[in-house]
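Figure 6 in text form: structure in, sequence out.
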């Protein structure tokens, strides 16, 4: 009998897959930008003037966005939130630059490109002041998402006014009420032309500087009023108006403070490819969803920066408290059929 031969079983070798995860422009369901664009959409040289305000990149004009339909996304030459509309005041000569924060309009009083700041005033307040004199009715808080814009908290020129509108008269008639060491009556808005209509109607209204109310007192006062609005103002203007008498604020002085506006600063994102684009001499194209789409390079589109510029595209050190981009080293996915595609994506 032949010796017993061991039975051979097929051996399956499980080889690890090497995979490559790469970011390709337009690979997340967003169509790529066309290879060329109308260079005039970038407000740069010469700049555009509206109402005495110089406008140029990273700001852009509302009517200067590119729309290529379904073939490519709509995009701006500038940061999405820095869109300015140059509006006609009288239909002919007077123009007003207006920017939107949230859903509300703000008049751009000045842009300071040397320190990335801009001076804004509530457009509704300016119009109300023109109609109602010294005591305009404030309609809304100031809100923005902070993608590019933020309050200038690094300076001492930032303060707030808090308004309490349409408050119950019994609050004023109670002699025992005292807030911040002074009676409530001192803060009641006392202007003949002031009106709570619309939206609340009736009652009395009050205005306080930020340091005149603590949270507990604010809560109690708000319980007696239909609406509370807080708006930023410039400390130097506020101090000047109240220099001789703090009660002048409620007698119409707050209108002067509001008309002088408030300051915001803008910053460049270091968490997308915009820094590489701008360092190479390009202008960043953003979609309405605030996604970086490509680099606009004098009529041509670069991804993600302008080639052969000779400029450094090393990211700058972040000035914010947020960490910079995180590089994650992922396993490589490699198959024979996708080698060329992966290489094209990388280079």
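Output sequence:
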């Amino acid at each position: 009998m032949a010796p017993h031969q061991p039975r051979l079983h097929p051996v399956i070798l499980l080889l690890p897959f090497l995979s490559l995860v790469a970011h390709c422009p337009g690979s997340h369901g967003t169509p790529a930008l066309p290879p060329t664009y109308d260079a005039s959409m970038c407000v740069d040289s010469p700049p555009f003037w509206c109402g005495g305000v110089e406008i140029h990149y990273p700001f852009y004009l509302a009517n200067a966005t590119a729309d290529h339909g379904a073939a490519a996304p709509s995009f701006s030459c500038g940061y999405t939130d820095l869109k300015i509309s140059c509006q006609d005041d009288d239909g002919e000569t007077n123009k007003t630059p207006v920017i939107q924060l949230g859903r509300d309009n703000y008049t751009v009083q000045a842009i300071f490109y040397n320190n990335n700041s801009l001076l804004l005033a509530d457009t509704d307040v300016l119009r109300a002041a023109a109609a109602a004199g010294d005591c305009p009715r404030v309609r809304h808080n100031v809100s923005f998402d902070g993608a590019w814009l933020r309050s200038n908290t690094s300076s001492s020129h930032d303060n707030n006014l808090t308004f309490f509108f349409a408050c119950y008269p019994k609050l004023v008639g109670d002699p025992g009420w005292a807030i911040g060491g002074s009676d409530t009556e001192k803060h009641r808005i006392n202007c003949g032309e002031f009106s709570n209509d619309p939206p609340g109607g009736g009652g009395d209204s009050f205005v306080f500087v930020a340091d005149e109310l603590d949270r507990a007192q604010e809560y109690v006062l708000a319980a007696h009023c239909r609406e509370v609005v807080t708006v930023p103002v410039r400390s130097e203007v506020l101090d000047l108006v109240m220099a001789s008498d703090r009660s002048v604020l409620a007698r119409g002085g707050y209108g002067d403070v509001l008309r002088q506006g408030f300051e915001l600063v803008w910053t460049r994102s270091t968490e997308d490819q915009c820094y590489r684009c701008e360092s190479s001499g390009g202008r960043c194209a953003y979609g309405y969803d605030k996604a970086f789409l490509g680099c606009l390079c004098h009529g041509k589109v670069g991804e993600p920066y302008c080639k052969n510029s000779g400029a450094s595209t090393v990211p700058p050190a972040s000035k914010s408290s947020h960490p910079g981009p995180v590089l994650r080293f992922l396993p490589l996915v490699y198959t024979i059929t996708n080698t060329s595609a992966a290489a094209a994506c990388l280079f």
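Caption detail: Residues 8-30, 176-181, 317-347 have pLDDT under 50 and may be disordered.
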